[in-house]
Each structure stands twice: as structure tokens, then as C-alpha cells.
Amino acid sequence: MDLGFLRRLYDEIGDYVSVYLDTDKVHEKGSSEALQIRWHDARRQLANHGASQATLDAVADVVLDPDEVSPGRAVFARAGAVVFTGALDAPPRREIARLAPLPHLMPLLAQHRPAIPHVRVFASRTGGELVAVGGSGEAWRDWMAGRQWPVHKVKVGGWSQDKFQRRAEETWEENAKQLAAEVSTAADQIAARHVIISGDVHARSMLLEHLTVPLRESAAMLDKEVPADSQAMADAANQALSEWADRDCRQRFEEWGTYLAHDKAVQSLAETLTALRNSQAADVFVADNPHSVATARIGRGGTEVAAASAELEIRGVNDPVEDRADAAIVRAIASTDAELHFLPDDLVVTGDSQACGGVARPRDGIGVSLRFPPLISV
Known about the structure:
This protein is α+β, with helices and mostly antiparallel strands. Helices cover 37% and strands 23% of the residues. It has helices at residues 31-48, 53-63, 106-111, 137-144, 165-190, 201-210, 213-218, 231-260, 269-277, 309-313, 325-334, and strands spanning 16-22, 72-78, 81-88, 96-100, 118-124, 127-133, 151-157, 195-199, 220-221, 265-267, 281-286, 295-298, 305-306, 321-324, 339-342, 355-356, 359-360, 366-370. The chain starts with 15 loop residues before the first strand and ends in an 8-residue tail after the last strand.
């Protein structure tokens, strides 16, 4: 999970309001009134902690929007304006109303994980069509806000029935080449590494032959003839991408275990904060723990994070402040080129004896694969 698109949220810190609210208006009797009560309680709590009325009004405009249809909503605001919001496909696991130096984004990322950029393709003997999904921070923000993710639809080929079979085969081949070229171009534009293909069996096979090797090896075949922009294709793509993401995370985590034995990885909260502070982190593995109360010390810079104030003060950071460790970790990841990975569900349990592929759960439920060996200095 690349969080670079979140960097703009950290241009300023301080007085950040983070609200996670159950906004379901469908399954609860008198839901509009219930929502009003929930927001009233959250607003009162935030006001008591010093949140400005202008900021609370901005949040209210979002959570009480009569056109709101999502069952849950996360809103982040400061200085009288909403800077980011995310629609949840279920009520939040914990309702949160918080005023702090940083936005509390980890619960949103855990519950509504970003989809993976990919290309959906329908291949036929007369050509085909494709839909490129995702690829930019702006598109991701639209998706988080509950708006339809922007798509780019391209149709390829088209021919009338040729009475000569040889000519028909040549046309199919040319259509497959053209469609493959369009798929490769679309994948490059959105940095997609995955393709999901439906359509005619023969056309699918020809298309696969003309794809680049990386796309061919990652392609998932759907044994149906459904349009590239259909719900059936979307469901198939989500399933294939979910399985890929799980395999990828497990593989990277197993590699983390190997790196750990050779001083190329670290574990525990304190060592993770040090790695992030030194811009050493490549992959950050986090247990999804909505009940965590761990804290960290932070400065104004994205990588100014530590377990103790002294570790920042020695670097010239004046007056470090305290905030949630997970909020600070998200900011540090977003400020570097590190990637966030949530540990597999079967690993997120109490105790360090649990293992995934023979790799023990990291201390404190967090570990980091390093770009380069640990530094001696703080």
C-alpha cells in the first residue's frame, strides 16, 4: 500500500479532528435521528477538547449530508475545512471522535484498504475492450469518498465476417496484437501489474500470447464472456486481486523473516520508529489492532518520529509532542517511499508464537524490512 498521495495532509499539523461515525440510514429504524444523536455526542466531545466550531461545522456538513448513502464515514479536518474523507462499506469498527496533532488514518486504511491498479479486458475475435482502473492519488481519493472510480474505456478492432477462414484468422491475430498493445499502454499509464481477461476462449489465448511477460504472468482468466465494465467483471477482478494481495503480503513477510536473521529487518515499535526516522523502511508490516493505545513523539517533519523525546531533541527537534504511534507511522510511511502491509488475519493474534510460513509474529505486532543496514547513530 503506497501512501504517498496522503503527503499533502501533513503540510501542517496540530488541531486535527478525526471522526469515524456510523452513518447507516438503511438498517436502523429512525436512522436520521440516531445519526443526529451520534454526531451530537461526538461534536460535544470534540468541543470539550478544544476543537474549533468552524472545523466542527465542516465535519457536520459531511456526516449529516442528506445525500450520504454509505453505512460509515471517516472525516479528517482542521482549520475550518475537511481535508480528507473516506466512505466505509460498513459502520466503523469503533466510533472515534479525536482532536490531536495528526489525523488518525490507520483505522480507515485497515477497514477500507485501497484497491490495486489493474486493467480489465474483454477479448473477442472481432476485437475487444478494456477498462483501466485506478493509478493515481486523485482516483484513490474519489474511491474513498464513495464516488465511482474513474475508468477509461477503449474499444479495439471490429470486422465483418470474411468468407475466407485464413483471412479471418489473420484478422483475429491483428485484433489480438492491437488489443495487447492497448492493454500494455493502459497498464503503463496507471502503473498496473495485473490484468483480468474475459471473453472468447480463442481470443483470450491469442491476447495472452501478445502481452508483455510481466502482464502475461500476472493475468487472471475469467471463463465467461462479460463486458470489461460489468459488475461481473468487477467482482472477478476484486477476487483475483484480493488473492494476489494476500499472496504478495505473505511472501514479503516471509522474506522479512529471512532479512531479520541477517540484520536487514527489525521488529518492535521502538525499532520501527527508528527505521522510519532514518528513512530506512522499505516494507512496514502492521497488525490490524483497533484497540492499540501505543504512543510516539513527533516533530513537524514527516520522519520526525521516535519512542522518546530525547531521540528527536538530539537531532534538533524542539518541543516534540505526543500522538498515537499508528498515526505517526502512517505519516512517516506517506513521507517516504515505504509501503504499508497489514499482517495476514491468521497472524494477528495475541502472543509471539504465532507464525506465517514459519515466520513468527513480530514483537509489538510490527516489523520493517530495511533498505540498508541499521545506522549506528540515532
